[in-house]
Amino acid sequence: ELEHKVITLIKNELKRFRKLLSPDYPACTEREVEDEEDLHSVREGALKITLHALKNMNHTDLANTLHNKLTSLYHTKLKSNLREKCKRINEGISQHGSSALLNEIYTELYITEGWSGDVNNKHEVRQIETASRRPATQETAIKCNDLFKEKSIRSVLTKGVAGIGKTVSVQKFILDWTEGKANQDVFFMFPLPFRELNLMKQQNLSLMKLLHHFFPEIKKLELIDCDSYKVVLIFDGLDECQLPLNFQKNERLCDVTESASVDVLLTNLIKRNLLPSALLWITSRPGAANQIPPECVDQVTEVRGFSLLLLLLLLSAFPFRGRHSESSLSTYPYLLHPQHLHPLASYPH
């Protein structure tokens, strides 16, 4: 009876693989992706046997096609899960039931290429005031979704003071990808906040196992081929990192299946020893950003807050009325003065 059940399961899997290999087979639905998670061990074993048999029969092209079709299942499930995770955001102080749809409340932030302030010598407020006095002609604005538009850019370091909107920008970047609005050439996107990586600092595991831990929907993927698929890894909140990030002394690691500490995995990712073709986005407060060696960063950007045009629109919509309307109106010209308007646009909101 056991033998019969095993043979039946294998036959059913082979039928499923045959459908996947058919050129007329439609794109998978989310329901099919959920079904894919059932009987995980059996299906994983059947897949390995089938791929091995196809290669031994010199049907490498069919084996690759089958592998790619199955990889697309994981891509679909990852997108679906990230969309659910990123579509809502807590407003104000986090409380149960106080979330709102990100797309309904998100306001585009003003992001510039390069860095305008000193990292260590000034308080963050002073950095804002210094940056606000820089002539606009020296700034090159860039949209969040265009960070990796230039093919030569592999790693981006985004700086910004606390509360300026870095994490929300990351969340919107991911949400736009999951909803098909931007960066559709990206196949996999893996957000790995330093706050969560800190909890793994005592563990030794491979990069693939680390990804499987945070993204169980891809646990059947043994390897990620960054030469075939565009992959983005996002490390938000470098200033919260509790790992030593010892770029000088950590051993070199190039194998995504080899186990090491999370610190070693991260330094080798950033140094391009692991997944050298993957794209990396790191966000940080200014004071912590110098932990990353300059040679490991292709592009530095800065979140500056609201653009002046948007701030003017917001101020013009402000209801200057009520019992303090006279005093409120008297402050309006004061706020519009460039000396005060520039810093106001850049302070965290």
Automatic annotation (TrEMBL):
<dbReference type="InterPro" id="IPR051261">
    <property type="entry name" value="NLR"/>
</dbReference>
<feature type="domain" description="NACHT">
    <location>
        <begin position="154"/>
        <end position="288"/>
    </location>
</feature>
<dbReference type="Pfam" id="PF05729">
    <property type="entry name" value="NACHT"/>
</dbReference>
<keyword id="KW-0433">Leucine-rich repeat</keyword>
<keyword id="KW-0677">Repeat</keyword>
<dbReference type="Pfam" id="PF14484">
    <property type="entry name" value="FISNA"/>
</dbReference>
<protein>
    <recommendedName>
        <fullName>NACHT domain-containing protein</fullName>
    </recommendedName>
</protein>
<dbReference type="InterPro" id="IPR027417">
    <property type="entry name" value="P-loop_NTPase"/>
</dbReference>
<dbReference type="InterPro" id="IPR007111">
    <property type="entry name" value="NACHT_NTPase"/>
</dbReference>
<dbReference type="InterPro" id="IPR029495">
    <property type="entry name" value="NACHT-assoc"/>
</dbReference>
